[in-house]
Amino acid sequence: MGLISRSSLLTTSGATAGLSLLAGAFFNAGDYIFIEDPTYFQVNRIVGIDLGLKTVPIPFTDDGINLEILTKEIEIRRPKDFRPTTERPFWALMYAITVYQNPTGICYSKEKCEKLVKLARKNNIMIICDDVYNLLRLNKNDGDDFERAPPRLLQYDVKSDEDYFGNVVSNGSFSKVLGPGLRLGWIEAPLVVLSKLLMNGCLIGGGALNHYTSGIVACSLNTELFNNYLLMVKNEGKRKLDAVADVVTKCCPKTVKYKIPEGGYFMWFELPSSFDVQAFGDVCKRKHNISFTHGVTCSTAGNWQNCIRICFMYYPVDELVKGVRTLLCELDSRLNAQ
Length: 338
What we know:
The chain has helices at residues 15-26, 43-49, 67-77, 110-122, 191-197, 201-206, 211-221, 224-251, 277-288, 317-336, and strands at residues 9-12, 32-37, 54-61, 64-65, 92-96, 125-131, 168-173, 185-188, 257-258, 266-270, 293-294, 307-311. The chain is of the alpha/beta class and 338 residues long. The mean pLDDT is 94.
């Protein structure tokens, strides 16, 4: 991908705020949002509860969202008389995380990204893609350099295509690489999106979001300071992921399914369907002071009740290894007791 034009960028106070800003500017209560199942656990609160959009969960596969089911759900709901206008260019929204998805850690395949963009163009749908983990590719090549992460979904929405309209928005954040307390992110969007977004009253009145912090971070981007810090974060992240992966490979019960991610923040475990994850979580918290995200909280449909998500980027390596080993030993004990 070539250089990014500054005219396609808008600073935000983080990816969560970016999602709320975009959804609120383009959609009304009662409109539809198609989401992955499972997905980021706060999505329904942001767009469903706060903004009143109707969430339509779509099952997830090994390489991304299930396109066959997504297509059928779109066909059921698409208004027959919809025609895009400057004021209302899209009738529905889709939210996705195509690189190191939260909570599964999966990356969408190239083929799925291409088909997803075509589907959005054909049906006048905006896709907001959370690109918050893309810089955290933790695999190294033979030369001991970190590999590049898969392309963002935005890169598949090619302007030179005959049917290009501008359906994909990249919603970025510095939270996962510099620190969540900065509350700084950015939107990279096509003209059809930015021209309407810039008429938002909050942006007109304030001029932008998070002026001071964005100025500081922008200065760091013009030096080696940011690159050096990012390299440190990635090296430390690789140490943590490798250590956790080693424990999981050795200690995880054979009846539990998992996949070691190549980057991001999270690892996803699928336990036997009959296992009581809620009770297990209570035991882990009470006995060991260990907590995890229950899979069902990542589903607006109440699915994934037998799954858990752990974060491998937050704690020091020693604490992580001890915590994950204790968690898996407790899990093995309870599974054997069934």
